Amino acid sequence: MNRVVFFLVPGIHILDLAGPAQAFFEAGFFGHPYELRYVAERAEVPTAQGVPVHAGTSWPDDLGADDLIVVPGWHVRSLAESPPVAAENLDVLRAHHARGGTVASVCAGADLLGRAGLLDGRRCTSHHDVQEELARRHPKAVVVRDVLFTSDDRVVTSAGIASGIDLALHLLAARHGPALAAQVARDMVVYARRNGHEPQASAMLRHRAHLDDVVHRVQDLLDADFARPLPLPELAAHAGVSERTLTRLFARATGGLTPLRYQQALRVERAEHLIAHGATVDAAARSVGFEDARMLRKLRARSSDPS
To answer: Which helix (H) or strand (E) holds 37?
Structure first.
């Protein structure tokens, strides 16, 4: 996703647009800049909140598979009252997906993806007020109720309003890894979560659902450099607090973990990935910073023990 193109329709919710746009903008501060573009059928687009938004009226000629199209939602009492959209713009959505691109929506924007035929046979969601109507209007879609977002074959849909931020963080994590998504979330002062009704897939995100800046700074260091020894005194100095204070704050923010246990979770998670892709246990252990495979085997056994 080198470029993110937002397709705007009249009556859009400002936060449906601004939330994801801010997340992709913030990614640039961490070494992953995105070009943000705004396209609409008319140059001035009214918003539900009364602030007009200006956009271009033509799509980029060189949209590629690495680019993302996002359709923010709009304010209507019923999806049947949604603004009309020209057939050629629906064609752009279909063609972009057919070329391998990703298409996403926030809130009522899912209806536009449905009109383009992109929801047929795929899991999707929308704001809870219009989920049932979305299912009626697009009977071939698999509408998932009451989740923050869904992702199915490069069609990504989110619930309503602020969930567009969760959608953007998910896409950033999928593209650049959960550490980048966590950094963006921290900068935006939001929780780094994936889906409120599904378990976190990554230790980085699973233990980032807090707003403690001291702990985030330490986690940033651990996330980026978990393969080397990072003793508690070094971590405390990095955060500018005492070892005792860091231990207390870290445990409170992460549900009882010490920095060492968090680092071990990151190592095991990375080792599991390497093993799943053909590495031996010994090679994976060395790659993530263990002197030999004994500690890795012990920690893997501990994580798989249901007790």
So the answer is: strand 35-40
